[in-house]
Design brief:
mainly alpha; 2 strands
């Protein structure tokens, strides 16, 4: 039972892109993704 808690916590710690709903490990990676892929466009 406790083995799955770490997986759940790491999943909950992910950041979601407001443009394409992709998940990233943290806000820094998410920010780079938005700048590179979406060119900081307005969220849908």
């Amino acid at each position: 039972m406790f083995k799955n808690i770490n997986k759940f916590r790491s999943f909950m710690a992910q950041s979601k892109c407001p443009y394409c709903s992709s998940l990233f490990e943290n806000n820094e990676v998410l920010s780079k993704h938005i700048d590179k892929v979406h060119n900081a466009a307005e969220p849908i």
